[in-house]
Specification:
Elements lengths: L11 H11 L3 H10 L5 H8 L5 H20 E7 L11 E4 L6 H13 L4 E6 L6 H9 L2 E4 L5 H21 L3 E5 L14 H8 L7 H8 L1 E8 L9 H8 L10 H11 L3 E7 L5 H9 L3 H18 L5 H10 L11 H14 L5 H23 L1
Parallel strand pairs: 1-7, 2-5, 2-6, 3-4, 3-5
Antiparallel strand pairs: 6-7
Helix pairs in contact: 1-6, 2-4, 4-5, 9-12, 12-13, 14-16
């Protein structure tokens, strides 16, 4: 028994049996039909028997699935910054968070195709309650973030996760992906929650906070979708917040959102890897003594990297101009791109619902607004 058993992904010696346990699940059949539409069921069922490691599963199946998703629901994936990273070094990738499944899946495809160490990735256990999804997540090197715990249990869970991330990075030499915040940014505002950094710091032991964070080799990741396939699905939660009401998710809401994120149209996608946060930490150590203020400063560095390296697609400029009734950024998009965006807005939001329309436009415009604010500082 390991202290990480409740949250860890599968060890390689468990993979074959666990894959076999869901091989005939109807959801697996649907997934394989999507990934290999011209392949008979018996062919991939036989291939499953030859899978004996997570790496095997990711190379032979998951990577093909992600490429199919890109082919059917996007106009391509571009990247920048990854050539500056060492292929044999494990990194802690801290990313803005737009899509439940794709953010980390796309990063891992990029890492696989460029020969870098792929990531173990954090996922909320509320998203994988169905057996099939739980097994699939753990076959894809996902570890569980436990949700809905009491304050006491939450503290214990955070300590365990912090130690697990440390073990993965420093002992197992395995890269790790975590989102900069709990849950996706519904409003397009990408901000690192200090609580995420506090959790990471719990495993520092006798090391100073700064020395420990240097050892983690943090790389901020900026991920930008031209269109958010779940844009309209985020509206009810934003409206509840606007009305200062508690938002209660529907029974299958997370699953529906996952499917929409995977299959919905995204147009172009860009991933940027920032540089490793290192000398900035020395600067913090020199000028700030208070631990909480050090964490605030580290969060600010991550935010600055994510916002400044975020790819601004035409949709961001169009949303800004529509939101503020201006043509300030008209040179950044074509009339056709503007009309396509307006049509999307009209199909998703009632013309009489002024509040939802404003939230929809703000969601798309915020990355640009945040970049403007950053450049003005």
């Amino acid at each position: 028994m390991s202290k990480f058993d409740e949250i860890r992904f599968f060890d390689d010696h468990e993979v074959n049996e666990r894959l076999g346990s869901v091989a005939r699940d109807p959801m697996m059949k649907a997934l394989m039909n999507f990934t290999f539409p011209d392949t008979e069921e018996q062919v991939w069922l036989h291939q499953f028997k030859e899978i004996h490691s997570i790496s095997d599963f990711q190379h032979h199946f998951v990577a093909h699935t992600v490429r199919q998703i890109l082919a059917k629901s996007s106009e391509g994936l571009t990247t920048s910054g990854f050539d500056r990273l060492d292929k044999n070094t494990p990194y802690l990738y801290i990313s803005n968070h737009r899509d439940i499944v794709l953010d980390t899946s796309l990063l891992n495809l990029v890492l696989l195709e460029s020969g870098h160490i792929m990531t173990a990735s954090a996922i909320g256990d509320n998203l994988v309650k169905r057996k099939f999804l739980n097994v699939l997540a753990k076959l894809n090197r996902n570890f569980l973030v436990q949700r809905g715990l009491s304050l006491r249990d939450q503290l214990k869970s955070s300590q365990t996760m912090s130690e697990y991330i440390k073990d993965l990075l420093l002992e197992q030499k395995q890269s790790v992906w975590i989102a900069q915040r709990e849950g996706r940014a519904k409003d397009g505002n990408d901000a690192t929650q200090q609580g995420v950094l506090k959790m990471l710091a719990m495993a520092a032991g006798d090391q100073s906070l700064i020395d420990y964070f240097k050892s983690l080799k943090i790389v901020p990741i900026s991920i930008s979708y031209e269109y958010d396939p779940t844009d309209s699905l985020k509206m009810p939660q934003l409206l509840a917040k606007h009305r200062e009401e508690e938002y209660i998710k529907g029974k299958n809401e997370d699953f529906t959102t996952m499917l929409s994120g995977i299959l919905g149209q995204k147009k172009r996608i860009h991933l940027h890897a920032g540089h490793v946060i290192d000398t900035e930490l020395d600067d913090i150590a020199m000028h700030i003594e208070n631990k909480n203020k050090q964490l605030q400063a580290i969060a600010q560095i991550i935010d600055t990297s994510i916002i400044s390296n975020y790819k601004l697609w035409p949709t961001k400029f169009i949303a800004y101009d529509l939101l503020y009734n201006t043509d300030k950024y008209a040179s950044e998009y074509t009339e056709q791109e503007k009309q396509l965006f307006i049509r999307r807005l009209e199909m998703r939001i009632s013309s009489e619902d002024a509040v939802s329309k404003e939230y929809f436009l703000t969601m798309y415009a915020n990355p640009l607004i945040n970049k403007i604010k950053q450049e003005e500082k």
